[in-house]
Design goal:
With 97 residues, the protein is of the alpha+beta class. Helix content is 36%, strand content 12%. The chain has a two-stranded antiparallel sheet with strand order 1-2. It is elongated and about 50 Å long.
Amino acid sequence: MLEEGRSKGFGFVCFSSPEEATKAVTEMNGRIVGTKPLYVALAQRKEDRKAHLASQYMQRMANMRMQQMGTVSLPNRLAIFVSLSSCGSGSVPKLQP
């Protein structure tokens, strides 16, 4: 797309079949043109894209919280993930230094 004779840095392409569109995305996304990587994806309405991105963000945040809840930090040691379901009585096993 052009604005005052200069490229806006993006464009849209229509394909005759969904298979062609999928092939373009898988083969062209990430390909380097000149010095820049292409970003190729199926077009979405702005509202749909915002909703999808918000959903992804919320999911990532929930996953991070779950990981933080299951991590025990020891001084000068690596963090250890403790799975409570593997403890027969449901108690947290004692960790040896």
